Amino acid sequence: MKRKNLIVLPLHGFESEIGRWLWCLEDIRRTLLEKISGISQQQLDTEVIGHSIGSLLYHIALIEADWLYEEVLGGKWNPNIRTLFPQEDRNDDDTLNSVKGQNLDEHLHRLQCVRDELLFHFRTMDLEDWRTSRSLIHYDVTPEWVIYHLLEHESHHRGQIFQMLENLKRKN
């Protein structure tokens, strides 16, 4: 058996500390993509625990984009990214909006476009900007905290997706 090398290395082309955090974000995404590779349209659209895997994938991408554009960049959205989100991700009662009928490639494209944007904007960031608070109406936030939050957010929903896939397998 091949020996594993369990270390965190900074992503190439980033300030070292920032690159380590982004490596973690990329690793979470890698494991998510491996698990959902080849899932069916039915698996994407079936509501298991109040929502579908497709709805969670849409939500993960939208939240990542929102935190990037609103908190880090001060509300300056790339219009090409904005068009990837034709609907809000939450209903009036704060439940996730149902996203059905979009195939896996559409979800993967959206996730990748948003991640490419995030990496693009963080590539030129230095440690001073990384730790500089942005003042919003209800709170102050640093890009460092945004990445921490995105790590936590995607990890949480990745776990839900993994559990949903197990539940779907048991039903079949």
| Main sheet summary | 2 strands, antiparallel
Give the end-to-end Cα distance, rounded to a whole number of Å: 33 Å
SS strand fraction: under 5%
User: What's the overall geometry?
Assistant: globular
Characterise this structure:
With 172 residues, the chain is mainly α. It has one domain: dinb family like domain (Four Helix Bundle (Hemerythrin (Met), subunit A), Up-down Bundle), CATH 1.20.120. It is 60% helix and 2% strand. It contains seven helices and two strands, in the order H-H-H-H-H-H-E-E-H. Strands 1-2 form a two-stranded antiparallel sheet. Helix 3 packs parallel to helix 5 and helix 3 (53-72) runs antiparallel to helix 7 (143-171). The longest helix has 29 residues, at 143-171.
Summary of the model, kept short:
This protein has 172 residues and is mainly α. It has a single domain, classed as Four Helix Bundle (Hemerythrin (Met), subunit A) (Up-down Bundle).
Write the layout of secondary structure elements.
Elements: H1 16-36, H2 41-45, H3 53-72, H4 79-82, H5 104-123, H6 127-130, E1 134-135, E2 140-141, H7 143-171
Antiparallel strand pairs: 1-2
Helix pairs in contact: 1-5, 1-7, 3-5, 3-7
Keywords:
mainly alpha, 2 strands, globular, single chain, 172 residues, Four Helix Bundle (Hemerythrin (Met), subunit A)
